[in-house]
Amino acid sequence: MDTELIRIGRRFDARGWVMGTSGNFSAVTGRDPLRLAITRSGTHKGELTPADILEYGDGRVLRGEGAASAETALHLEIVAARGAGCVLHTHSIWSTLLSHRHGDEGGLAIEGYEMLKGLAGVSTHEHREWLPILENDQDMPRLAIVVRRTLADHPSCHGFLLRRHGLYTWGAAPAEAARHVEILEFLLESVARSKEAESWRS
Amino acid sequence: MDTELIRIGRRFDARGWVMGTSGNFSAVTGRDPLRLAITRSGTHKGELTPADILEYGDGRVLRGEGAASAETALHLEIVAARGAGCVLHTHSIWSTLLSHRHGDEGGLAIEGYEMLKGLAGVSTHEHREWLPILENDQDMPRLAIVVRRTLADHPSCHGFLLRRHGLYTWGAAPAEAARHVEILEFLLESVARSKEAESWRS
Amino acid sequence: MDTELIRIGRRFDARGWVMGTSGNFSAVTGRDPLRLAITRSGTHKGELTPADILEYGDGRVLRGEGAASAETALHLEIVAARGAGCVLHTHSIWSTLLSHRHGDEGGLAIEGYEMLKGLAGVSTHEHREWLPILENDQDMPRLAIVVRRTLADHPSCHGFLLRRHGLYTWGAAPAEAARHVEILEFLLESVARSKEAESWRS
Amino acid sequence: MDTELIRIGRRFDARGWVMGTSGNFSAVTGRDPLRLAITRSGTHKGELTPADILEYGDGRVLRGEGAASAETALHLEIVAARGAGCVLHTHSIWSTLLSHRHGDEGGLAIEGYEMLKGLAGVSTHEHREWLPILENDQDMPRLAIVVRRTLADHPSCHGFLLRRHGLYTWGAAPAEAARHVEILEFLLESVARSKEAESWRS
Fold it and tell me: Which of A129, B165, C125, D192 registers the highest number of CB atoms within 10 A of its CB?
């Protein structure tokens, strides 16, 4: 698991999705009781080492030095609601931009793109994906409740945006979660540039 | 052949043209009977291993685990119509954008660029390349027929776009097909940004 | 220290922030008397070797061949005013663009972004960062005085821009300074693209 | 020399400036008689091997298999007129775009940018660089004459653009020529994006 999260970090760093020490990743390592491998707070995701991946469970760090990501509560909500095996959170330019532009509408619809088929369970470009947008909040317990409600209200969504903050997505395993990041980032850039193109002189 | 497809995958991944598990590649390994090396469905093209390249022929996978790309039928049409030795399919932001913008016109003309000379048989920037755009379709046998007709109607085209889906191009060998991807992607970005520049204040 | 500056150079080169031989980096190696490791003038920051990092103190190069960066005086002002352990100067497209666009206003406010929390001491996206913009000047002693006054006038700023020139930021150690570059560059691109998006047809 | 050209090719490929098999590089290896190391026609500049660098002199290939770049005549004009030790030709999106937009004016002025100081002999951002733009032409002897006249008419220019084709620049040695490519490409992108920004809503 750790090796996979480290490799994902390098890949996402190359794309500019985890600048500074932004982003955080987790993978479920046990279900009963629930155990997570989760990135240490304040690490650069492009330069992770095994020591930067903590074991978390029973509400605390069980193994490793330092604090788990401040957003651990959000990871736990997603694991509980979706049975996800991996949760990935990234910060990109396009997710930041669109999360604000469509923030007042509470979400963003994406449809008509072949790339939608890269989302688990989607078999046609005619699929309509609703990507909820949540107001950003530094109060993690409060934000966790909003995440729980959002996941309940949108049982088929594959991710959500935090306004002017970034993307959360997940998957059964790290490879699927990483694929969802790539797919959603591709779609967000496509949506943004297409919107821009509508302003070109015809 | 396998090594070449693996290297092409890494190169295209670095450019963001095969995000998620998108895209698929094939190379002809025998002509009589026809044999293809083709990427396994659902693989990440930036992380291909030899086991991800299947041998295909006589309408089925002859060697390797897993299914051939769902779009194998399109590869076969191109090999048959053009005698291509390699077919490459990629998903980029610019091909996605322009395939939709010009979709209703059925294609896109590109002319006046020196880079056109990177297309096989083109010796001057004054060449006019017509890049056909086909409606996207999840019904592969039906889409294969449209591909066949398009290739017949445009005997000198070097590639085509599927609407909001991506680019297909080909070549006598992997190196030529990869060059065509790079050339066409460069030209598509140039066309899009030039169109954008027409809207700048003069 | 040298190894860290070399690695930072490679990272920033990959992002296009130190094109040509632009940019310069320093790290404090002693406080009493003050000693700096600083990049030699005219080196490519993506290809630094240990020989390209000079020891500087008492107003001159103490160890190594060649001249210290022409902008050493600015590094010294920042170290003195902020107690910084590392000063990094980069040239990016977005800092160049925004430093000119907002140059007449003397600075640029950035607020509302989660990424602001990557700046030392910032704990909420509601933080408002004022990034001062100074007129570019080839007279280094004169520019050093302007830098000193700017740092005094804006005691909580994390960096500043030189108009049509680039970004200066700093940190307690190389890792923090590098994080500030990544954070500020992300924010500058976000601000610029958001401004652009305001012109899209709604 | 060969090693330097190979490394430059890898660097420029990573930036997308030598897509397909575009671009060509040369370095002077002897002055009397004149000898050039020059890239073989039809090679990918990101994957050069020593065998792809030919020795050229007395109007023909002296060592190596294959043909010298079709644009060898232009390299020779630049070496003769400027005493250059290295000539680099690249194809980028921004040079393609601006060479067309400003083609009718015969060139493009760049001034006010700190990055101008990366051009040999320029010591202030107040420098005004005139980058001539030549009409593209497949007739190399004729184009060589236009290059010769352009270099005579603009004795202090550091490069020129071929319309919808690309950039030529040079330097005393490969490192300086490569620096000029990076500097001019940075400036061209800056000029283009600044122009774009003028259209943003104020």
Answer: B165
Instruction: Write the residue in C114, C180, C201 that is nearest to A165 by C-beta.
Output: C114
Please enumerate in sequence order all residues whose Cβ is within 8 A of that of B32, keeping only pairs 6 or more positions apart, or say none: none
Whole-number pLDDT of residue D81: 98
Decide: B74 and B67 in contact? Cβ < 8 Å: no
Average pLDDT of span C120-146? 97
Q: What is the pLDDT of residues A110-168, one digit of tens each?
A: 999 999 999 999 999 999 999 999 999 999 999 999 999 999 999 999 999 999 999 99
Name the residue with tokens 């980058």: D131
Which of B3, B7, B111, B115 should be substituted to probe chain D, the one whose Cβ sees the most D Cβ atoms within 10 Å?
B115
DSSP character for A155?
Answer: T
Tokens 């990544």 found at: C182
Phi-psi region of D8 (alpha: psi -120 to 50; beta: other; left: phi over 0): alpha
Q: What is the pLDDT of residues C43-85, one digit of tens each?
A: 999 999 999 999 999 999 999 999 998 899 999 999 999 999 9
Span B72-85, pLDDT tens digits: 999 999 999 999 99
d(CA A170, CA C22): 40
HSE-up of residue C35 (Cα within 13 Å, Cβ side): 10
Distances (CA, A) of D124 to C143, C145, D129: 14, 19, 11
**How many residues make up chain A in this entry?**
202
- Is the distance from CB of A160 to CB of A133 less than 8 angstroms? yes
Cβ contact B108:B128 at 8 Å: no
Retrieve residue D14's tokens. 């990573």
Q: How far is CA C106 from the centre of its chain?
A: 17
Rounded alpha-carbon distances, angstroms, from residue C156 to C103, C120, C152, C187, D71? 20, 10, 9, 17, 55
- Who among C21, C136, C196 is closest to D200 (CB)? C196
Query: Does the structure show a pLDDT above 90 at D59?
Result: yes
> Nearest-CA neighbor of D133 among D102, D90, D110?
D102
Q: What share of chain A is helix, strand, coil (3-state, %, to 5)?
A: 45, 25, 30
> Residue C18's closest chain D neighbor by CA?
D182
Q: Once rounded to an integer, what is the mean pLDDT over residues D71-75?
A: 97
Amino acid identity, position B22: S
Q: Which residues contact A130 (CB under 8 A, 6 or more apart)?
A: A107, A108, A109, A154, A157
Q: Which residue of B has its CA nearest to A114?
A: B165
Strands across the sheet containing B34-39: B60-63, B53-57, B34-39, B24-31, B86-90, B166-171, B159-162, B128-134, B107-111
Which residues 143-202 of B are in CB contact (within 8 Å) with D? 175, 179-180, 182-183, 185-186, 189-190, 193-194, 196-197, 199-201
Alpha-carbon distance of A154 to A130, in angstroms, equals 8
